[in-house]
Structures are given as structure tokens and as C-alpha cells.
Specification:
By secondary structure, this protein is mainly beta. Helices cover about 0% and strands about 45% of the residues. Strands 2, 3, 5, 6, 9, 10 and 11 form a seven-stranded mixed β-sheet that branches. Strands 12, 14, 15, 17, 18 and 19 form a six-stranded mixed β-sheet that branches. Strand 14 and strand 15 form a beta hairpin.
Length: about 300
């Protein structure tokens, strides 16, 4: 039977008798570089899709398999789609007898940079897609990071090299589709890059994300700066000062977190609980990393 529309002639072998032949794979997503190759970076979301032919949707099954790229003779193993990092979808059959199978890798890991193929079973017949190769893209540049506490202010700045005189400047917040006009200081030729600055006030958690500056020119062109990642930190509720102690707030070197520590307020005092002299605030959650309270101090009793 010829249930396949002619427009699929170059993609799918027409006629149900050819259902067990290999069918080229369609790849979706902006990371596609070639028909059967995807270039992506660790941390990216990657989508792979294969199209298959069938008479109907009953008794349809699809599995995805993967193998290491370094060893072409290595065995194909089933993708562990039961894990949260993978999602699979199967479309309904369309009017042309085509079913689409999709594998979504939510957050690409180094181990996911491998070869893939889809196996489609229908009425005891098997179709195998062409091999789809995920390759490692050039590492993305690390953005400038600006960490500030909720409710505070922060000054963003970036330098942009240009040989043309800019006519306007903006701060872009693509995640929120927000554009803020930035004051453009007088352009001085032959003085090197232009530094743009903008102050954000009363910063909220919703302001977290990637920002960048953009300069516009009279000829209609524009240029953008490197990305700036704004991380908004949360304060933990200040603890009560335990009895007979002095409490101190301290930054933790090399960490975004901070801590409160206590010491006894007098030489005749001793710690009640030796292991409870400090608590650490996780500024990402605004919660302390332990449920234990700070220890009070008590008077020493001489026998």
C-alpha cells in the first residue's frame, strides 16, 4: 500500500513493505550543525527527533540507544530514560503515516556527548534511524558575575571596543525582555574601549539572570558586550544572641555564604555545647545549613 505522501519521498521509503529499512533522522533545535550531528556544550538542553512510517499507531514502541564515540565497535546500550535528565515523546500518526519520536536531554553532561539512534518497533517489524552524533562545542565564555543581596543596589559595567561613534546605549535583560536606556558619555575618538555603567536599585530575586550592554550606531548597526550574570543572594534571619555570649557575623573566604559565631562574654563562663558555636547562612536559599541553635554560655562551677 502507498499510504505515504509523495512529499516525503526523499525522507521515507514509500510503501509499507519497506518499513524495516533505515530512515534518515530529522534533528531539531538551534544546536543542529549537520543533518546527523549536533554541536552542544555541557549544560545545554538538546533535542533529537526521528520520523518513522507505520500503518497505524497500535502496538508502537520506540527505544533510544547510545554508544561511546571513541570506540566504533562498542555496544549500543539503551538510554536510561527513566532518569529525570531524559524525556521521550512519541507523536500520534499523521495523515501521511508518519510517527515522530523525540529524545530530550534536559541538561547535557560530558557522558551524554555520544552517538545515538532510535529503534522503532511496529507489528514485529523494526526500523533503525541513522546514527546521530552529539559533539562538544567550543566552551561558552564564562560571564562576569555580580553577586548582591536582595534589596541592595549594584553597579553593572562593561567595556565595548568600537571605532565608530555610538548614538545610543542600552542595558538588556533578555530573560525578562527588558531594555533600559543607559546614559552615554561623550565619545572620544582614539581613546580605546567605551565603558558603560548602570546602577540597579532595590534589587529583587526576580532580577537574577544574564544582562548585557548594547551600543547603537548611526548606520543602524549595533554591538553588545559580554554577558554579565547577576546573582541575587538572600539574607538569613538574624539569630537571637544566646545568653552570656557575644555574637559575630563573619564572611566565609571563597564562599558566597556567611556565618554567625559566638564566644562567651567573660572568663568565668563556659560553652554549654562545644559543637554549636557557629551557624552558616546559605545565601542561595536564605536558610541556615543546620537546624542546631547557637550555644549559650554558663557560669563555671568550681568544686
Amino acid at each position: 500500500s502507498s499510504g505515504i505522501n509523495a512529499e516525503y519521498g526523499s525522507l521515507i521509503h514509500s510503501g509499507y513493505s519497506q518499513i524495516d529499512t533505515v530512515i534518515p533522522v530529522i534533528l531539531l533545535g538551534e544546536s543542529v550543525s549537520e543533518k546527523t550531528e549536533i554541536s552542544a556544550s555541557v549544560g545545554d538542553s538538546v533535542t533529537i527527533r526521528a520520523h518513522f512510517t507505520a500503518r497505524n499507531f497500535s502496538e508502537v514502541a520506540v527505544i533510544w540507544e547510545t554508544r561511546e564515540q571513541q570506540h566504533q565497535q562498542s555496544e549500543w546500550i539503551e538510554v536510561p530514560t527513566q532518569l529525570a535528565s531524559y524525556r521521550t515523546l512519541i507523536s500520534n500518526i499523521n495523515n501521511n503515516g508518519v510517527i515522530s519520536a523525540t529524545l530530550l536531554i534536559e541538561r547535557l553532561s560530558q557522558n551524554d556527548i555520544a552517538d545515538y539512534r532510535a529503534i522503532f518497533w511496529h507489528s514485529n517489524k523494526r526500523q533503525t534511524s541513522e546514527v546521530i552524533r552529539i559533539t562538544s562545542a567550543e566552551p561558552k565564555p564564562v560571564p562576569q558575575v555580580l553577586s548582591v543581596f536582595e534589596g541592595s543596589s549594584a553597579v553593572m559595567s562593561a567595556s565595548i571596543a568600537t571605532e565608530k561613534e555610538p548614538t545610543a546605549a542600552e542595558l538588556l535583560y533578555p530573560e525578562n525582555k527588558k531594555t533600559t536606556t543607559v546614559t552615554l558619555s561623550q565619545y572620544l575618538s582614539n581613546t580605546g574601549p567605551i565603558t558603560l555603567t548602570h546602577e540597579l536599585q532595590k534589587i529583587m530575586l526576580s532580577d537574577t539572570g544574564i544582562y548585557k550592554f548594547r551600543m547603537r550606531f548611526a548606520d543602524g548597526t549595533s554591538v553588545t558586550s559580554e554577558n554579565i550574570l547577576l546573582k541575587v543572594k538572600r539574607h538569613c534571619r538574624k539569630p537571637r544572641t544566646p545568653a552570656n555570649t557575644i555574637i559575630t557575623k563573619e564572611d566565609i573566604p571563597g564562599s558566597e555564604n556567611y556565618q554567625y559565631s559566638v564566644q562567651c562574654d567573660g572568663d568565668d563562663l563556659t560553652l554549654m555545647f562545644e559543637g554549636q558555636t557557629r551557624i552558616v547562612c546559605d545565601t542561595e536559599t536564605g536558610q541556615y545549613t543546620t537546624t542546631s541553635s547557637l550555644t549559650p554560655c554558663t557560669h563555671q562551677h568550681n568544686n
